Amino acid sequence: MSRCTPPAIPATDTSPITHADLLTRLRAFAAQTRSAFALERADGTRDHRHLTASQEKRLVSYLSRALNAAGVSAESERCVRVLVPDLATLPTTRAIHTDAPGAVAAALALTFGYRATRRAQLPGGTGQRFLPEPFRPLLAFVRASDSFASQAANLLTTVARVAVAAGAITAPIVMPSSHEMALAAATLNRVGSGRFTRALSVYRSLCARAIADNPAAPFAMVPDGRIERAQGRGLLWTLARLARDGHERADEFLALVAAGDQLAALRMVLPGIAEDLEEYLETPRGERKKRDGSTHLNRTQHDVIDGVCSCAAALLDLGLAAPGDDSVDLESFWTALHSAPATESASNAKMRRRAERRMILTGALTLTVTPVARLVADRLASQSLALSRNAGTGYPQVVANDLWSAWAVTYAVYSDDLEKDEPEIWVRMQAGWLAVRKHMRKRRAAVSSGRTKQKLLGLRAMPTPYVLAFGLPMLAQHARRALVRAQRFIARATELNPGLGWEHDRDARRAADHFADVSLTYLVTALATWVSMRKNQYVHARYGTHVRMVTRHDGMRVIHTEWPGDNHDRARVKTRNSRSWMLPVGAIDLDVWDGYLTLVRAPRLQKRGASVEDAAAPNGLFALFVTDEKTQDDASCFSDTQISRIYFGGGLLWIARNVFGLSELPEKVEHIDRSRWHGVFAVHFVRDLKATYLGTVLGEWGAAEEHTLDEVRTLRLHYAQTVYGASYDAAGWNVSAFDQWSRRALLGSDRVATDALSSPDLRALLPAAARATLQNWQRADREEARKARTTVGRVSGGSTRRRRPGQKPPVSATQ
To answer: For residue 4, what pLDDT is reported?
Structure first.
């Protein structure tokens, strides 16, 4: 660090400073400081490693005095409001290790490209002295009986700073969503999740009291992020807006918003719809969603509640229902019609002008009748597109999900009785749902490119027959090599320490752990690719019940899978179909299978308290793929993410790099660019592989339906991509050469996956990267064999090892 004299500190400036002036002065000080505290190398690059703690302290002291003289208070909230977004754009080079607050931290960042630490982003000091002026009126509503009475100022200060960090410059007039504030709180020092949650609760309580006392009080509510999902959408947000607009029941609405229970809010504002929803949750169809079962069904329960509440909020927004109206239920939701002037209900400007011309010519007002459900869908779509900053039109998928939730409740509650006693009403309700669904399907909102699954990219880079014939066998060979290595270390540990188990040998443990990762990667990838089901089956599959080893009539051992359609089984099929079949002969490497059961699965279960017999037997008590981590699940299952993204994604990544030569992909699955390869390195991608190849390429739609247990129309709509043989040929893949092999392995009841690597015709189609991988393995095997032969000295039993050139022979012990 240079010993140049820092530039002189200007005279104290007491004039008011604006945000623009603040940034201008900071950048000016940054330029001066760079010349005074030079850290440039000879080549012009910066080296921050030579900035010692004392030098940094001297630099902070200088900047602090300079900024204070310029009228910039280091503790000023306005500094943070401007500097937080400015700091967020700087590259990460080195963190600040001092307690330099707002303005000083910004000057350091602008000077040397620093990234301010969590300490530096939050100005020091708490309490009423540091509470911003707009928040101080809330302190008048603190009661002596409140548990937070003595800490109210500190907690409100936390909310104020977090709101500013989240980008709400005009807080508390405009407040961000709780989700945005939680993300901002994670970047600030001394604001943990517990403190922020308590502070937000205090703000909500005081804000509700302030608005109840004066509806025009300048305090914005903060709806619950989980319920609202986004700012400005949902039932609680609608109630907060109605309270802000001066509704006569504003106090009740604010209390509901502060409580955060949307189901309780629905009971108060639209009791008829709430009764339908609660009846649905108590029926067997809804009860299944509340039991301790699949996480998918638990999530579906929340989605149904959120969807119905969103529809109810849209009714209130549109003025089609009044709060407290008990005549509004889901029956009227699907059957009611709304009439409005054609000039107001027109869908575009052209039709609006046409309606105006027609009204002028005829002299009569033309009315347009629209189903209420259609108006609700339009309202939800406009809100969703506005919140996502999407300039397009149409109906996003989230709106379709909300309407589906309303229909699911309607069908469960009304269908049995109305279809029998009042069929005409039930037909009208069904017609209302089908009309809205058809209208939304024809006008789907475009999905942004960043959220579109890149299925075609994965299919063109890794054709299905190449994956089955080359990718999985080579991944199996990779797992076999790890098995042989683990067995060798285990045998050596057993020989050296006969009285101890091999688990006490460090090298043997490492080799076994490596084989555990590789074998799980291979078995999950291979089983998922051949079975073609969803991740729920592999997560909850139990050894002996859903997957087991059987012996065929010819003595060949194969893997047998059985997937039930019973809703009580956690490995059930989504479409409620069942399937029991054997995998093709040779589809799964049985050496790796046996090694996994013996060296990985059984020891893990024994550590969890299972007996030796139960750990090894196919009794259906435990999961097929067993985790070694602590879990509340008695079956010791992996999580969805571990099965889908870590093990299957890792296996497909190994195939992509070592068989197909996609060197642009990272070595670890955690580093994959999920936006570029969205939907590829996940277990659901196997359904695209099978549906596209069997249906689109081979034309065997019946086989595609059998493999995926989905209807042909679903496969054509969601899974089968427009990749034909000519498309593969243009990309350099000879897919047609695998027709005979694929039909033998995928079609019929007696399927056999022959070794494609032993076929000269198919082996000639190996990608260059696959050839290089096989050659590297052969070279490593020769080198290992050479090292085993080239040793010096006499080994036990009298055999002599090879001598180095020029080395004298060893002297015999008898000489």
So the answer is: 45
C-alpha to C-alpha distance for 693 and 468, rounded to whole angstroms: 11
Per-residue pLDDT tens digits for 785-812: 888 777 544 444 444 455 455 555 554 4
Dihedrals φ, ψ of 577, to 5°?
Answer: -85, 160
- Our measurement of the distance from residue 555's CA atom to the centroid of its chain's CA atoms, rounded to an integer in Å, reads 45
Of 204, 295, 328, 294, which is closest to residue 258 (Cα–Cα)? 204
Q: How is residue 787 written in tokens? A: 């090292």
Q: Residue 361's pLDDT is what?
A: 79
Note the pLDDT of residue 802. 52
Three-class DSSP labels, 211-253: HHHCCCCCCCCCCCHHHHCCCCCCHHHHHHHHHHCCCCCHHHH
CA distance 314 to 326: 16
Per-chain mean pLDDT for the chain? 77
Handedness of CA 341, 345, 350, 351 (dihedral sign): negative
**End-to-end CA gap in the chain:** 73
**Contact yes or no for 273/333 (Cβ under 8 A):** yes
> If we measure between CA atoms, which residue out of 56, 64, 103 comes closest to residue 81?
103
Is residue 430's pLDDT more than 60?
A: yes
Helix, strand or coil, per DSSP, at residue 62: helix
Distance CA 432, CA 288 (A): 27
Q: What is the DSSP string of 395-415?
A: B-HHHHHHHHHHHHHHHHHHH
> From CA 206, how far away is CA 65, in angstroms rounded?
39
Confidence band for 227, pLDDT divided at 50, 70 and 90: very low
Residue 542: DSSP 8-state: B
Predicted confidence (pLDDT) at residue 34 exceeds the cutoff of 60: no
pLDDT tops 90 at residue 655 = yes
Q: What does the block give as tokens for 303?
A: 């989605």
* Location of structure tokens 């390195």: 681
Q: How many helices (H) and strands (E) does the chain have?
A: 38, 5
* Type of residue at 602: A
Q: Phi first, then psi: what are they for 579, rounded to 5°?
A: -150, 135
* DSSP class per residue in 570-636: TT--TTS--EEEEPPBTSS-HHHHHHHIIIIIHHHHHHTT--HHHHHS--SSSBSSB-SS--S-TT-
Structure token pair of residue 584: 């093709």
Measured distance CA(755)–CA(469) in Å, rounded: 7
What's the mean pLDDT in 719-737?
Answer: 79
444 bridge partner residues: 395
Q: State both tokens at 684.
A: 């659901």
Q: Is the dihedral of CA 76, 82, 83, 84 positive or negative?
A: positive
- Alpha-carbon Rg for the chain, nearest whole angstrom, is 34
Are residues 705 and 573 in contact, defined by beta-carbon separation less than 8 angstroms? no
With CA atoms as reference, report the closest residue to 392 among 455, 451, 461.
451
What is the sign, positive or negative, of the torsion defined by CA atoms of 303, 304, 307, 313?
A: negative
CB 129 within 8 A of CB 149: no
Kindly tell me if the per-residue pLDDT of 473 is higher than 90.
Answer: yes
Q: How many other β-carbons are positioned within 10 Å of the β-carbon of residue 379?
A: 19
**Are residues 236 and 208 in contact, defined by beta-carbon separation less than 8 angstroms?**
no
Cα 404 to Cα 306: distance, rounded to the nearest angstrom: 11
Cα–Cα distance measured from residue 235 to residue 793, given in angstroms and rounded to the nearest whole number: 83
Closest CA to 539 of 695, 684, 439, 680: 684
Q: Which residues, in sequence order, are CB contacts of 255 under 8 Å at separation 6+?
A: 208
What 3-state DSSP class applies to 767?
A: coil
Q: Express each pLDDT in 64-84 by its tens digit.
A: 666 666 555 544 444 444 444
Report the run of H or E that residue 500 belongs to, with start and end. Answer: none
Do residues 687 and 698 lie in contact, with contact meaning Cβ atoms separated by under 8 Å? no
* Strand (E) or helix (H) holding 558: strand 557-563
Q: Which residues contact 358 (CB under 8 A, 6 or more apart)?
A: 342, 366
Mean of pLDDT values over 618-635: 80
Measured distance CA(86)–CA(103) in Å, rounded? 11
Model pLDDT for residues 392-421, shown as the tens digit of each residue: 778 888 888 889 889 989 988 898 889 888
